[in-house]
Amino acid sequence: MNAAAGGADSLVSRRDLRFLLYEWLDVASLAERPRYAGQSREAYDEVLELAERLATDLFAPHNRAADVEEPRLEGGRVVLTDGVSEASRAYADAGLLDASLDLSVGGCSCRWSSRPRPAPGSTQPTRRPWGTLC
C-alpha cells in the first residue's frame, strides 16, 4: 500500500485515524452544532487528505534536517533549513493556520471548499496547488 491509500508508507494510518475520529470521538456529530453547520465527514476527510499531502510532500523531506539544524539568527535574519519556509507558506496558504478560528474573525471554523478563495483585498480567487479551507 502507499501513502495515498493510508497504508504502510503513510505517515498516519487512515484506518486508525478514521476509527478515532468517527467511531470513538463521533466528530461528524459536530455538524449538529450551529458553528459547524454544513460540515460533513466528507469535508473532514478532504481536510485530512490535504494535511497528509502537505506533510508527506513538503514537511517530511526536511524533518530530520530541521531537527538537526535549528533555526538561527544571522545578520538580523532568521535562517531556516531548506524547505521549511515553502512548507510553512503552503500550510498557511491552504488555510490550515487559521482553520480553527471562527468565520466571524476571518477563520474557517474548519469548513472545507475546493474552490480557491480570494487573496486579501482581492475579489479574484488565488490558485493554490494544495487546495484551501473556507
Textual characterization of the structure:
By secondary structure, the protein is mainly α. It has helices at 14-24, 41-59, 63-68, 84-93, and strands at residues 72-74, 77-79, 112-113, 132-133. Strands 1-2 form a two-stranded antiparallel sheet. It has a two-stranded antiparallel sheet with strand order 3-4. Helix 2 packs antiparallel against helix 4. The radius of gyration is 17 Å and the shape is flat. The model is unreliable at 1-5 and 111-116 (pLDDT under 50).
Present the secondary structure layout.
Layout: H1 14-24, H2 41-59, H3 63-68, E1 72-74, E2 77-79, H4 84-93, E3 112-113, E4 132-133
Antiparallel strand pairs: 1-2, 3-4
Helix pairs in contact: 2-4
